[in-house]
Design brief:
209 residues, alpha/beta, Rossmann fold, seven-stranded mixed sheet, globular, methyltransferase, Erg6_SMT_methyltransf, SAM-dependent methyltransferase
């Protein structure tokens, strides 16, 4: 297996020593992307928030600073990521402001209409059935709540060769902005707004239930 394939597989489900290195790198390398992604998202201080694919827990930590009277849940299907995210957020967990758990986007273990905000940073490429998974996200989102997607890659002409290589090696589903909007609309999301940084291939999508 090539080095890039190993890295992409670890991005999908970080595990072990290499996974730890990848997660620590993502916490740093995704900081600017996440900052840009979150700047347009309304986060009230009493919000209940779910971060899907929480990885090393940095985004959970940053959102918890803004939702300081609410609670932020971080979900990842990697047991190791759950452990690392707990380590990073241990003080907030002790204060009952954060909870980290193992779970999958196919079956989010919460009742309907639970969350004010759901975030997915650098993760939807790896979701097994994005349309069905968006439906599951919508189920646990409150009416009027926000779903935010922040991606470092979207299908575009300028980055097509690179993205196609990543998609093939890592079994990733890299949607265009229009494809993403269509799927979200089909499952019932409204007010879909997509912002792009074309020279970096960044995408931010904010929509509501």
């Amino acid at each position: 297996m090539s080095e890039i394939a190993k890295r992409l597989n670890q991005c999908r489900k970080p595990t072990g020593d290499l996974g730890k290195i990848i997660v620590e790198d993502m916490n740093k390398s995704h900081f600017n992307l996440t900052s840009w992604g979150l700047e347009k998202i309304n986060i009230e201080n009493d919000f209940l928030v779910l971060d899907i694919g929480c990885g090393g827990g940095k985004t959970v930590n940053r959102i918890a600073e803004r939702a300081d009277k609410g609670k932020v849940y971080g979900m990842d299907y990697s047991d190791d990521c759950v452990k690392w995210s707990i380590d990073l957020n241990i003080n907030l967990i002790k204060e009952n402001k954060v909870e980290i758990f193992q779970g999958t986007v196919e079956n989010i273990p919460f009742e309907a209409e639970k969350f004010d905000l759901i975030t997915a940073v650098e993760t939807i490429y790896f979701w097994p059935d994005v349309k069905a998974n968006f439906s599951e996200v919508r189920r646990v989102l409150k009416t009027g709540g926000t779903f935010a997607i922040i991606n470092e890659m979207y299908d575009s002409e300028a980055f097509r060769d690179r993205n196609n290589e990543f998609a093939a090696i890592g079994n990733m589903n890299i949607l265009s902005s229009e494809e993403l909007k269509i799927v979200l609309s089909e499952v019932g999301f409204n007010d879909i707004e997509i912002d792009l940084v074309e020279e970096k291939n960044w995408l931010r999508c904010v929509c509501s239930k």
